[in-house]
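As noted in the main text, all predictions were made from sequence alone. Below is one such record, for HDOD domain-containing protein.
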Amino acid sequence: MSNEAARDTHSTSLPDLIEKLLQQQGIGYQLRPLEYAGPVAQQVQASLLCDSLGTVLSLIPKDHLLDLKRLSSLLGRELQPVRDSELQRILSKHQLSELPGLPILFNSPCVCEQALLEQACLTLDSGLPGWCLQISQDDAKTLMAKASMARFSIPLSSLQNPAASPEQDTQDLSEAVQNFTALRMKQRLEETIEIPPLPETAHKIMKLRVNPEAGIDELADVVETDPSLAAQVVSWAASPYYAAPGKIKSVEDAIGRVLGFDLVINLAVGLSLGKTFKLPKDAPDRSTPYWEQSIYTAAVIEGLAKAMPREKRPELGLNYLAGLLHNFGYLVLAYIFPPYFKMICRHVEANPHVAPHLIEQHLIGVTRDQIGSWLMRYWDMPEEVSVALRQQHNPHYRGEQHVYANLVYLTLALLSRHRIGSGPEMPIPDTLLERLGLTEGEAEEVVGKVLQARDALRVLVSKYQPEN
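Prediction:
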C-alpha cells in the first residue's frame, strides 16, 4: 500500500458496530481503499435475499453470477433480492451506506459459494463507500463458520458472448424463443414472436434520410402527419437544453432555427420506434429509466463525435440514432419474454457487479444486444445502427462500421462512472481511445458538459416519454 493510502487508512475507521463484532470473533483485517481490493476472484459480492420466511445473506466471488434459480432449488425457498428501499432502511439502522459481506451483522442464515474459501485471502465490502476489508483465509473460515457452503453461482468466464454473425444471432434468438414458448411449429422467427412492422412514420422519415433532395419542408410535412410527434419536436426545440431565442412557432421553425434537419430525422425515428413497444412495468432497482438513459447516451455520443478528429468522425445523424436506440433490445426483450422478464430483473438486482447482457445470456441464451440488432436488420434500418447495437459491449471490435459501436461503448463506460445505466463500471482500453482519436481527458470533458446540463436534459426526458 502506498504512503498516501496508508495515511488515508489511519484517518478512516469502520463503524463502531462492525469493528466490535470483528473484535468479538477475533478476526483480523486490513481496511483498504477499493483500488487495492486485489483479484476479482478474491472479492466478495454480498446480496440480501428474502421470501415469506425471512432473509438470507448470499456471498459469492465477484467473478461469478448469483443464480437465484439454483440457490432457490438448493434451499427449497423462492428467494428474491430485498427491494432497495427496504435494504436502505436496514443499512441506515447500522449507519451503513453499502451492504457489507459480514454474516455476523445479520440475524439471517448465510449461504456462501464454496469457491470463496479456496482463495488465500478475501476482500469484503466494508459498508463504507470506497473502502474494503481484507482478511486471511483462516479469518474467512472463522467469519463463515455458521454459513452453509455450496456451489450455486456461475463463473462469468462461462458467460462471455463472443462476437457473432447476424445469422448466429437469428439462430440464438430463435432457439431462445423456442425454449420459452409452445409456438414451435412456425418456421419464421418474425411470425413466431409477431414483431410489428416498422412504423409508417419512421418508414417515411428513413426514406427522406436517403433522399439527397429532401429538405426542411419535406421533413416538416412528414412530422406534421403525426400530431404527437409534431408536438414533441416543437417542445424539444423550446426546451432549456437548446435555449433557443424567442418562441418556437412551428415544426419548420423548430427544424430550421434550432434543431436542424439531421437531429430531427433521428429524434423522429427514435420516438416512432419507441412507440412500437411499451415500457415494461417492472424494472431492476437502481437502474436508470429507459428514456433517461437513451437521452443521456445520445447527448454524450453526439459530443464525443464532434470532439473526434474530422477525418475519423462518423455520420453524426446515425451516430446520434445509435445512441438513442442502443438499449432498444431491452424493450423487445420484455415484449418477447414477458413471463421471464421479471426473473431477469431480479437477477440484475442480485448481481450489480455483472453486466445485464451476460445475465440474459445465462438465463435465456440470447442478449438484448442481439435482439436489438436483429430487429434493426429486420426493419431494414442502417447497418451502422445494427452493428452499433450488436457490438456495444465489445471495446475491441474493429470490424466494419466499428466507429459507431466503439462510440456507444465509450459513452456507456463514461456514464457508468457516474452511475447512469445499469451494471458495473466498464473499463476504457487505451486502444479504444486511439481508434477514435480521443484522449480520456477529452472524453471526460464531453460527459462533464452533458452532466452540467442535467436539469435541462431531464426536461427533455419528460418531453420524450412516448404515450404508451
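The longest strand covers residues 43-51. The CA atoms of residues 174 and 188 lie 9 Å apart. These features were considered when defining construct boundaries for the mutagenesis experiments described in Section 2.9.
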